[in-house]
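Subject: Sanity check before I submit

Could someone independently write out the structure tokens for this chain? I want to compare against mine line by line before I put it in a report. The sequence has 66 residues.
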Amino acid sequence: MSPTLHWQKSSFSGGGSDEDCLEIATSPTTLHLRESDHPTTVLTPTPTAFRLLLVALKHGGQPHNG
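---
Independent answer below. Compare away.
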């Protein structure tokens, strides 16, 4: 049986609305991501893929080496 995930909204998500928010949840071995307007679609990136996503976002969506 899979654990119940407790979703947390990103502090950078849009205004006071509950729409268009990035949400994150963790389980003992996995990170889970979803958009609040599509809660049944859950991404479970590897640590490397998640790191690369964060690096790309920090650099305006452009790939960054280093």
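---
OP: Matches mine. For the report I'm noting this point. The CA atoms of residues 13 and 21 lie 5 Å apart.
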